[in-house]
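ok here's the first one, seq then C-alpha cells
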Amino acid sequence: MRAYSIAVYLFLYAPIVLIVLFSFNSGNNASDFQGFSTLWYGKAANNRFVIEAVTHSLIVASSSASLATVFGTMAALAIQRVRGAARLFFDAMTYIAIMVPGIVIGISTLIALVTTFGLVNNILTTIWPGDPATAPQLGMGFGSIIAAHTLFSLALVIVIVRARIAGMDRSLMEASADLYATPWGTFRQVTLPLILPAVVAGFLLSFTFSFDDFVVAFWVAGSKTTLPIYIFASIRRGVTPEINAIGTVVLTVSLILLFSAQFLLRRGEKPKAKAA
C-alpha cells in the first residue's frame, strides 16, 4: 500500500518537478540538462509575444474574477434567503454549473455568442445611417472570454461565500436590526466584514482558474491570445526550456494564489471554532 501511494504521488508530481528542473537548463534542449542557468527566464521576460499573452490573461482573469465575485456574492446572499423547492433548484443549478466540463461550457458559449452576434450585427447593419459596410460589428475577443470565464467562476464563488454565510452568527445581524440599522448598514458593518475572507478567497480562486484556463478560452478567444493558448501553440513546435520557464512561473503564481485563498478561508473559520 505504501509503495502504491508513492507510485501515485510520483506519477502526479514527477512531471511537474521535471518542468521546474529543466526550466533552469542552460542548453537549448528541454530534455537534456546541460547546466544551471536562468537564461530562459530572461528570454521569456523579453519575448514580446509572451508579454502580450500574459497581459491578455491578466485582463481576462482580473475582469472575470471581479465580475464573478460581485455577482456570486450577491447570488449567495439572495439564495440564503430562499426556502423550499426553489432553494433546492438553485442549489442544483449551482453545483451542475461546477460539474459541467469546460469543453461543454466553451462550445455552448461559442454557439450562443455566434448566434447573438449574428442577430445583433444584422440589426446594426440595417439601422446604420451611413454605408452598411462601415457599421460596427460584434465579434469574439476579450468580452467573449470574460463572459465565459465569469460563467464558470460564478458558481464557485457562490459555493464558497454560502459556506461562510452558513457558519455566521445570525444573532449579530438580528441585533443590528434591533438597533434600527438599515439593511445596507447591517450589510456594510456586520455581514460584509464576516464574509470578506470568503469573498477574497473566491476572487483569488476565480482569478487562478481563469488565468490557467485553456479549454474554454480556446473556443471563444477569437483573435486574442491568452497565455495558455500561446503555450499550446508553442509546444506544437516542440517543448523548449522557455516554455518550461513560463510554466514554472505560472505554477508558482497559481500556488501562491491558491494557498492565499486557503489561508483566508481557514482564517475566516477561526472565530467560529473559538466561539464553539
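and now the second one, same deal
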Amino acid sequence: MPSLTGETARLTKGWSLSRQYSALGMLLILPTLLTFLLVIVYPLVYAVYLSFFSIYTPTLQGEWVGLENYRRMLSSSEFWTSLRTTIVWTVSTLTLQVVVGILMALLLNLKFHFQSLARSLVLFPYFVSTVVAVLIWRWMFNDVYGILNRALLASGLSDMPLDWIGSMPNAMISVVLVGTWKYFPFVVIAVLARLQTIPSELYEAARIDGANAWSRFWDITLPQLWDVLVVIILLRTIWDFKEFDLIYLLTGGGPVTSTQTLPLLVYKQAFGMNAMGQASTYAIGILVVLLIFMVLYLYRTQGRGGQDA
C-alpha cells in the first residue's frame, strides 16, 4: 500500500512549484474559511431569510409575508423611538468615554509615584464582568440603602432619595454613567499608548516659544492623537450601538420603554412577543446602520495602512 507522502507526491508530480504553493495556501486557509461561513455568513443569511416570514418563535413555523415585516418596521413608532434612544445612549456615553479617557490618559502620562499601580487600577472597570458591574451599581443606585442617595442626603444636595433607575431622565443618565465607567478604560489604553510615542522635542520647542499648557495640548497633543481618536470613536460607536447586556441588566429597557434600545427591542420581539420574523427584520435594520460605521472604519484603517506603507 503506497504511503500518504508517496501518494501526495504522485498527485502533485506534474504541478509547477507556484501551483503547489497555491494549493498549500488554499489548504491552510480552508479551516478559517469554513469557520467564517458557519459562524458569520450562515447566521446572517438565515436572519435575512427569516425576515421575510411571520414566524412563531417556540415552533419556528410560519408563513411567507414578503416585505410586510419591513413595512411594519418602518411604520412602527416603537422602532423609531428605540432608534432615537439608541442614538442618545450611543452619543452620550461615547462622548463621556472619550473625554474622561483622554483626561485620565493625560494624567497617567505624567511622572508620579505608584504610576504603574495607578495605570493598573484604572483598567479595573474594563475587566470586571458586566453582570458584576451592574450588581454593584444597582446597589449604589438603591433608593433605600444606596451610597449615592446617602451622600446626597448627607451633603444637603437633596431632601429626599432619588429614584435613579425607575424614572426619567434619571434612568438614562444612570445607564450612560455606568456605560462610561465600564468602557472608558479602552480609550485610556489607546490614547496612553499614543501619548508615549509623541516626540518630547515638540513640547520643548513649544515651551521655548512661550506656549502654555492649553496651547501645547491644542496644537501638539490633540493633532497627534487625532488618528487614534477616529479609530476609537468608530469602534466604540459600533460596540455601544449594539450594547445589550448592560442596559438589559440595569433597567430592562424601563421605565416602560424609556431606555429600550434596538437590541432590547429585537430581544423583546423574539422572546417576549414570540415574533422571530419581525425580530430578524429589526436585527437587519441594526446591521444596516452598523455597516455604515464598519465601512468608515475599514476605509479609515486601510487608508492609514496605505499611507504608512
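notes on #2: The chain has 14 helices and two strands. Strands lie at 53-56, 61-64.
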